[in-house]
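dumping this here so i dont lose it
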């Protein structure tokens, strides 16, 4: 299987709960261009300092209405509190 990142010459990483934090830490510290993740794990990686936001250009919350209706409001608010205000 070929990853879209191979065509774009960029590193993409999926950061979700239920996976190894050590693996997330290593991949995020090695550097990625695009992170796809769940609100809880993204929030956790930001709070731990593994997912840096100073070079963040864009944040997309796909199906945010669904996440809000399923009890993710606190994690979403936490993520927003950790990103620069101009994002």
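and the seq i came up w/
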């Amino acid at each position: 299987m070929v990853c879209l990142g191979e065509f774009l010459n960029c590193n993409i990483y999926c950061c979700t709960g239920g996976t190894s934090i050590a693996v997330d830490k290593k991949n995020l510290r090695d550097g990625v261009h695009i992170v796809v993740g769940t609100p809880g794990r993204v929030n956790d990686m930001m709070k731990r300092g593994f997912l840096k936001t100073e070079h963040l250009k864009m944040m997309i919350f796909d199906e945010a209405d669904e996440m809000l209706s399923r009890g993710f409001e606190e994690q979403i608010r936490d993520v927003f509190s950790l990103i620069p205000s101009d994002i």
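DSSP finds five helices and two strands in the chain.
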